Hints:
Number of helices: 10
Order of helices and strands: EEEHEHEHEHHEHEHEEEEEEHHH
Number of strands: 14
CATH architecture of the domain at 4-162 and 259-325: Alpha-Beta Barrel
Mean pLDDT: 93
Shape: globular
CATH superfamily of the domain at 4-162 and 259-325: Aldolase class I
Radius of gyration: 19 Å
Structural class: alpha/beta
Distance between the termini: 28 Å
Amino acid sequence: MKQLIDRFGRVHNAMRISVTDKCNLRCHYCMPVTGVACAPREQLLSFEQIVATVRVANRLGIDRIRVTGGEPLLRRELPALIGMLKRETDSTNVSLTTNALLLERHAEALAEAGLDRVNVSLDSLRPDRFEKITRHGVLETVWRGIEAATRVGLAPIKINTLLLSGFNDDEIDDWIELTMQHDISVRFMELMPIGEGAKMGDIGGYLNLTELKDRLVETRGLVALGGDGGNGPACYYGVPGAKGKLGFITPLSNKYCGTCSRMRLTSTGELRACLAFDKHVDISEAIRRGDEEGIEAGFVRAIGEKPAGHNWENGQVTRIGMSTLGG
Length: 327
């Protein structure tokens, strides 16, 4: 089997695939309230085109797929795509990142399709605060989705929580208590200067999670559990006796670019090898032609152009938003 190895020796085996740039929330760090120009439906890759692209990626050593958005469950018949990825490709793990507003409705179908895991984006355990950060989200609906996913076997659930100084950093003990009572992985994330996230300030600011983790090791007795079993960037810790665990994702305070094994395919067929850089390789025409050699060449080019790492700590800003990049 071929491998995608960049000029810095990093082997790539994971890909995030955005199936839509639309979302049913307007989180402050991700999308503005108005003026969002989403891709026309005819420009979106079909499920068959996504599967064909993944088959090429499989031959290059990529076997871990995460379906993202926007909000991926807005894409009609998404469980059908999950089933196709499980049946028709050599992917060993297919997961989904969602805001969970539609998860209760689709959890059973996703499980039946063979989905391996669910990541839920959730930034607060307080209904009023959740509504504020998302601009209109209903926390109860999210929890019903999480409970439904757990019932049908999509557990343990991973929750991605963006911690913001002055906004939700007083909820840390609540999240720890959640891991004490439930087999859930809560992953604290640092704010990244991507799209709307570079303009934050009115609702909260950057919080150094390496410093937070060190404090919690001292004050709460956190014990290191190791890296992310899903090849992600989180380093996990647990409180003795807890059913779940805490993860820390620290792209600025403890940069992990040197071990990056991921790339992204946007909903319109752009390959992005680095989340921080606007540069991309457009393979949409090769995909639509069914040109497997052209698709493979696009992967090789994207990896060849991948930088050593981001420069966010020195003021670099990524202009394109997360809803387009695919979280």
